[in-house]
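The instructor's notes for this session suggest beginning with a concrete chain rather than abstract definitions. Hand out the sequence below and ask the class to guess, before any prediction is shown, which regions might be ordered.
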Amino acid sequence: MMVPIVRKIAVRPTMLVLMGVSGVGKTTIGKRLGRTLGWTFRDADEFHPADNIAKMSAGIPLTDNDRWPWLESIGHWLDLQRLHGGKAIVSCSALRRIYRDKLLHGRGDVKLVFLKGSKALIADRLQRRCDHFMPPALLDSQFKTLEEPTRDERAIVVNVSMPPNRVVADIVRYVAPRQHKPLPKLFIKPRSRTPQ
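After discussion, reveal the predicted structure:
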Protein backbone atom coordinates (compact mmCIF):
# COMPACT_ATOMS: atom_id res chain seq x y z
CA MET A 1 0.00 0.00 0.00
CA MET A 2 1.42 3.37 -1.04
CA VAL A 3 1.52 5.97 1.71
CA PRO A 4 1.68 9.70 0.93
CA ILE A 5 5.30 10.84 1.17
CA VAL A 6 5.47 14.31 2.64
CA ARG A 7 8.32 16.36 3.99
CA LYS A 8 7.65 18.77 6.84
CA ILE A 9 6.21 22.01 5.49
CA ALA A 10 7.99 25.00 7.06
CA VAL A 11 5.79 27.60 5.36
CA ARG A 12 2.21 26.84 4.45
CA PRO A 13 1.87 27.18 0.67
CA THR A 14 -0.62 29.52 -0.93
CA MET A 15 -0.35 27.85 -4.33
CA LEU A 16 -0.19 24.26 -5.54
CA VAL A 17 1.06 22.69 -8.75
CA LEU A 18 -0.57 19.30 -9.32
CA MET A 19 1.78 17.28 -11.52
CA GLY A 20 1.64 13.87 -13.18
CA VAL A 21 1.09 12.11 -16.49
CA SER A 22 -2.01 12.59 -18.60
CA GLY A 23 -4.99 10.68 -17.23
CA VAL A 24 -3.75 10.66 -13.63
CA GLY A 25 -6.68 12.86 -12.55
CA LYS A 26 -5.08 16.30 -12.22
CA THR A 27 -8.20 18.18 -13.32
CA THR A 28 -10.61 16.09 -11.25
CA ILE A 29 -8.48 16.44 -8.12
CA GLY A 30 -7.74 20.10 -8.81
CA LYS A 31 -11.41 21.06 -9.08
CA ARG A 32 -12.35 19.17 -5.92
CA LEU A 33 -9.37 20.54 -4.04
CA GLY A 34 -10.24 24.05 -5.13
CA ARG A 35 -13.79 23.69 -3.82
CA THR A 36 -12.57 22.19 -0.54
CA LEU A 37 -9.95 24.86 0.13
CA GLY A 38 -11.81 27.74 -1.48
CA TRP A 39 -8.83 28.33 -3.82
CA THR A 40 -8.91 29.26 -7.51
CA PHE A 41 -8.23 26.35 -9.89
CA ARG A 42 -6.95 26.44 -13.46
CA ASP A 43 -6.10 23.55 -15.75
CA ALA A 44 -2.72 24.04 -17.43
CA ASP A 45 -4.21 22.80 -20.71
CA GLU A 46 -5.98 26.16 -20.88
CA PHE A 47 -2.57 27.85 -21.27
CA HIS A 48 -1.53 25.80 -24.31
CA PRO A 49 -1.42 27.70 -27.61
CA ALA A 50 -3.48 26.28 -30.47
CA ASP A 51 -0.39 24.81 -32.16
CA ASN A 52 0.41 22.69 -29.10
CA ILE A 53 -3.14 21.37 -28.89
CA ALA A 54 -3.09 20.48 -32.59
CA LYS A 55 0.16 18.57 -32.11
CA MET A 56 -1.10 16.58 -29.15
CA SER A 57 -4.41 15.82 -30.87
CA ALA A 58 -2.42 14.36 -33.77
CA GLY A 59 -0.39 12.21 -31.37
CA ILE A 60 2.79 14.26 -31.79
CA PRO A 61 4.77 14.75 -28.54
CA LEU A 62 5.62 18.34 -27.66
CA THR A 63 9.21 19.54 -27.75
CA ASP A 64 10.84 21.73 -25.12
CA ASN A 65 10.51 24.67 -27.51
CA ASP A 66 6.75 24.05 -27.46
CA ARG A 67 6.67 23.90 -23.67
CA TRP A 68 8.69 26.95 -22.62
CA PRO A 69 6.07 29.58 -23.61
CA TRP A 70 3.38 27.40 -22.03
CA LEU A 71 5.26 27.14 -18.73
CA GLU A 72 5.95 30.87 -18.76
CA SER A 73 2.22 31.55 -19.14
CA ILE A 74 1.44 29.32 -16.15
CA GLY A 75 4.11 31.02 -14.05
CA HIS A 76 2.77 34.44 -15.01
CA TRP A 77 -0.71 33.40 -13.92
CA LEU A 78 0.62 32.21 -10.54
CA ASP A 79 2.38 35.55 -10.08
CA LEU A 80 -0.84 37.42 -10.83
CA GLN A 81 -2.70 35.39 -8.21
CA ARG A 82 -0.04 36.26 -5.64
CA LEU A 83 -0.13 39.93 -6.65
CA HIS A 84 -3.84 40.05 -5.90
CA GLY A 85 -3.51 38.07 -2.65
CA GLY A 86 -5.17 34.97 -4.05
CA LYS A 87 -4.58 31.30 -3.32
CA ALA A 88 -4.44 29.09 -6.37
CA ILE A 89 -4.08 25.58 -7.77
CA VAL A 90 -2.91 24.72 -11.26
CA SER A 91 -2.70 21.28 -12.82
CA CYS A 92 0.37 20.77 -14.99
CA SER A 93 2.09 17.60 -16.19
CA ALA A 94 5.55 19.07 -15.29
CA LEU A 95 7.09 15.69 -16.09
CA ARG A 96 10.73 16.82 -16.07
CA ARG A 97 12.72 18.53 -13.34
CA ILE A 98 13.62 21.46 -15.59
CA TYR A 99 9.91 22.15 -16.17
CA ARG A 100 9.20 22.13 -12.45
CA ASP A 101 12.18 24.38 -11.77
CA LYS A 102 10.74 26.82 -14.29
CA LEU A 103 7.49 26.95 -12.33
CA LEU A 104 8.85 26.86 -8.78
CA HIS A 105 12.06 28.90 -8.96
CA GLY A 106 11.65 32.12 -7.01
CA ARG A 107 8.18 31.12 -5.88
CA GLY A 108 8.66 29.83 -2.34
CA ASP A 109 4.93 29.78 -1.65
CA VAL A 110 4.26 27.25 -4.43
CA LYS A 111 4.07 23.58 -3.37
CA LEU A 112 4.45 20.63 -5.71
CA VAL A 113 1.95 17.76 -5.47
CA PHE A 114 2.83 14.60 -7.42
CA LEU A 115 -0.21 12.51 -8.33
CA LYS A 116 1.29 9.06 -8.79
CA GLY A 117 -0.30 6.04 -10.45
CA SER A 118 0.77 2.89 -12.26
CA LYS A 119 0.91 2.79 -16.04
CA ALA A 120 -1.81 0.12 -16.13
CA LEU A 121 -4.15 2.22 -14.00
CA ILE A 122 -3.64 5.35 -16.12
CA ALA A 123 -4.01 3.43 -19.41
CA ASP A 124 -7.35 2.08 -18.22
CA ARG A 125 -8.55 5.58 -17.32
CA LEU A 126 -7.51 7.03 -20.67
CA GLN A 127 -9.37 4.32 -22.57
CA ARG A 128 -12.56 5.36 -20.79
CA ARG A 129 -12.19 9.07 -21.59
CA CYS A 130 -13.62 10.80 -24.62
CA ASP A 131 -13.25 14.45 -23.56
CA HIS A 132 -9.50 14.97 -23.83
CA PHE A 133 -7.15 15.71 -26.73
CA MET A 134 -4.34 13.48 -25.40
CA PRO A 135 -4.65 10.08 -27.17
CA PRO A 136 -3.82 6.97 -25.11
CA ALA A 137 -0.99 6.16 -27.53
CA LEU A 138 1.04 9.03 -26.07
CA LEU A 139 1.05 7.46 -22.60
CA ASP A 140 4.29 5.55 -23.30
CA SER A 141 5.95 8.83 -24.18
CA GLN A 142 4.67 10.43 -20.99
CA PHE A 143 6.07 7.70 -18.73
CA LYS A 144 9.41 7.73 -20.57
CA THR A 145 9.65 11.48 -20.06
CA LEU A 146 8.53 11.40 -16.41
CA GLU A 147 11.21 12.27 -13.87
CA GLU A 148 9.69 11.65 -10.46
CA PRO A 149 10.34 14.40 -7.89
CA THR A 150 13.47 13.93 -5.82
CA ARG A 151 13.76 14.51 -2.06
CA ASP A 152 15.06 18.04 -2.44
CA GLU A 153 11.89 19.06 -4.31
CA ARG A 154 9.93 18.31 -1.13
CA ALA A 155 6.85 17.25 -3.04
CA ILE A 156 3.68 15.79 -1.61
CA VAL A 157 3.32 12.36 -3.27
CA VAL A 158 -0.18 10.90 -3.36
CA ASN A 159 -1.38 7.53 -4.62
CA VAL A 160 -4.19 8.10 -7.15
CA SER A 161 -5.46 4.52 -6.97
CA MET A 162 -7.49 5.78 -4.02
CA PRO A 163 -10.91 7.40 -4.60
CA PRO A 164 -10.69 11.13 -5.46
CA ASN A 165 -12.16 12.21 -2.11
CA ARG A 166 -9.35 10.42 -0.26
CA VAL A 167 -6.69 11.89 -2.55
CA VAL A 168 -8.08 15.37 -1.82
CA ALA A 169 -8.26 14.65 1.92
CA ASP A 170 -4.60 13.58 1.97
CA ILE A 171 -3.50 16.79 0.25
CA VAL A 172 -5.64 19.01 2.51
CA ARG A 173 -4.21 17.26 5.58
CA TYR A 174 -0.74 18.55 4.76
CA VAL A 175 -1.54 21.86 3.08
CA ALA A 176 -4.28 23.15 5.38
CA PRO A 177 -4.54 20.82 8.40
CA ARG A 178 -7.17 22.97 10.09
CA GLN A 179 -9.51 22.33 7.18
CA HIS A 180 -8.87 18.60 7.14
CA LYS A 181 -11.85 16.52 8.19
CA PRO A 182 -11.16 12.80 8.65
CA LEU A 183 -13.29 10.67 6.36
CA PRO A 184 -15.77 8.42 8.14
CA LYS A 185 -14.61 4.86 8.60
CA LEU A 186 -16.75 2.14 7.14
CA PHE A 187 -18.61 0.35 9.93
CA ILE A 188 -19.37 -3.30 9.37
CA LYS A 189 -21.80 -4.81 11.82
CA PRO A 190 -20.37 -8.03 13.24
CA ARG A 191 -22.31 -11.19 12.56
CA SER A 192 -24.22 -12.53 15.50
CA ARG A 193 -23.23 -16.04 16.49
CA THR A 194 -25.84 -18.70 16.23
CA PRO A 195 -26.14 -20.65 19.48
CA GLN A 196 -24.85 -24.19 19.15
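Then share the key points. The helical segments are 26-37, 50-57, 64-83, 97-104, 119-128, 139-145, 164-175. Residues 64-83 form the longest helix (20 residues).
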